[in-house]
Amino acid sequence: MTLMLFLFDSWNPCFKFLHLYLPADLCGPCPWGWQRLNSKCYYISKHGKLHWDDSKQYCSKHRAHLVIINSEEEKNFINKHIASDYWIGLYREAWMRAWTWVDNTPLGENRFWQKGQPGNLYYYSKECVISNAAGWKKESCYSDSFWVCETEALIF
Prior knowledge:
Blueprint: H1 2-11, H2 18-21, E1 35-37, E2 40-44, H3 52-61, E3 65-66, H4 72-81, E4 86-92, E5 100-101, E6 127-132, E7 135-140, E8 146-152
Parallel strand pairs: 4-8
Antiparallel strand pairs: 1-2, 2-8, 3-8, 4-5, 4-6, 6-7
């Protein structure tokens, strides 16, 4: 932010007082109330629980998606901020064997499943994934849980 203000100052003297109207705490890399890790911002719900589809819709309304966990660092960061089960962006459609992320990429490596998970596949309904400190477990998408949204951080 300081570099950006310096560039504006040298470009046009009208921007000299920009920092008075856009302080850094209002113009940060993540929306207010979101947590940042590297180049991502995370909204960690703490008040109220939703079904998986409603959680997904909440994230979409905030220009984000349910979290896609790509690393142990990311998983640990989220677990540090939430003490209970939370929806992640991983699901399996009814009649399908493959687990898919909300961005339509396949699961790939399964290293975060809890012991015994994902277990038997139930072909009659969509299944979604909840995460907690112990790892991932499949759950009915109609269960209520907290959720985590993810979006790109605004980095200059």
